[in-house]
Amino acid sequence: MKEKYLNSGRKKQKHKTRDRILASAQNLLAEGKEFTLEDVAKETDISRATIYRYFSNIDILASEAGLDLNTKTSNEILEDVREFNTKEAILEIQNYYNDLALENEPGFRKYLSATLNVPNDKKTRGARRKSTLELLFQKKGIQLSEDEKEKVSNIATVLMGIEALVVTKDVCRLNDQSSKDLLNWGLEHILNSVIAENKINAAQTSK
Length: 207
What we know:
Helix content: over 70%
Radius of gyration: 18 Å
Order of helices and strands: HHHHHHHHHHH
Shape: globular
Number of strands: 0
Number of helices: 11
Oligomer: single chain
Largest sheet: none
Distance between the termini: 32 Å
Structural class: mainly alpha
């Protein structure tokens, strides 16, 4: 149990550090000037080496900082879905992230392209989709084992966002709405299967 709490604490600290770096980059973006990782390091009072562990180059940091301005926090998203049952909430979260990706598609594609060129051992993504789903499971009291929660949150994450939309649009040749419909259909069928096995609590939350 001690190791579990230590890991949780480290994870929260990493998110805080990452958020500080993004906030500083956004301040520099607002000034309308070009900036470097060194400039962000000075703004945040965090070493360049630490920033490099989160963002390996300035293009990735600038792209994510710009996109982050248009993205709701996990708590804001969950507030929007708090009166939905578990299945409905997950599908609404999927809709939010798919709409966000489509509305900012050029920026997300640029960001994805930049991160694909980063070595695997240096890739660090914000993982907002996964974090939002994990927080939903905590607040809803989902009747799943830790392993099952991980699998459901992972497969739901796979079926939302720019990566899934690149496949549906570029490979399957679907338009925006057909892409959303297909991804929604796939996730709903997976959730129905989990619900049918009585492994997920889909009851209405208390109001």
